[in-house]
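Dig into these lines:

——
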Amino acid sequence: MTAAAVVVTIAGAGAAIKGVPGGGPAHADSAVRELPSATVNAVTWNVCGEARPGCPLGGDPDELAERIAERAGKTVVGGRDVEPNAVLLQEVCEGQVETLREEDGLDGWSWTFAEYPDGGECADEQGRLGLAIGTEAALAAEKTEKLPAPDGAGRIALCGEVDAWRARVCVTQFTPAADDPAGEWRTKQAEALAGIAGSGRVVVGGDLADGPKSAALDPLYDAYNECDQGPGTTRTGDETLQDWRGTAVEKNDFIFMSKSASVSCGVPAEPVEESHHRPLSAAVRFR
């Protein structure tokens, strides 16, 4: 992990929570104060599961599933070992999610999967590509929502509620710049995602196909804090997208959370061999 993990702390947690999971209206202040504290150790990762150039393990989905399970078992945030309890995956195969359900060390986890509307087929009859959420605590009310997107390249967000954390967890992947050079669709997707995720306790992760300073991501930065954004309103963060040499070139992966939470963030300092994206980890503390 990078030596200097970013830490963001926001005061006044109780007063800042505006609703309940799913963005419902707030009840009385006393109800807000009664919300239990919770820590969500989340990892978001575009695992590059398609069998195509640039996806090192796209042709070996079983091996990739093992690597995903390893990342789900341990990560590093702020220079310390952390056991994730939430995993947000993009470009993952349906068959890999089924493997993760049975993986030692992930016993009892809840998993949900949604295939991309126009996603490709995976190797070895592993189904289609899509999004997945895995949580150590029970996941309920799973729902797939369509995002605005160009014809023939549909985009979705996948969300679920974790009652143990009183939180809503979402994952998505935005339209790449090659199909949206002006960022018009990504702006619409960011606006829609903020509405879908809501205003209560929220953890949202994914590959947003853009850098942190992009105006297309304004709706998300306005609604939430990002785990690696820097002090105050600074929009920075360690690079997560790798080039063909394994060099990190840009931050394209994000974990957003309610502004009432405190958070530490981490990205591996060394190249990862499984994907063209490095996983992004965050310890999100709701108080």
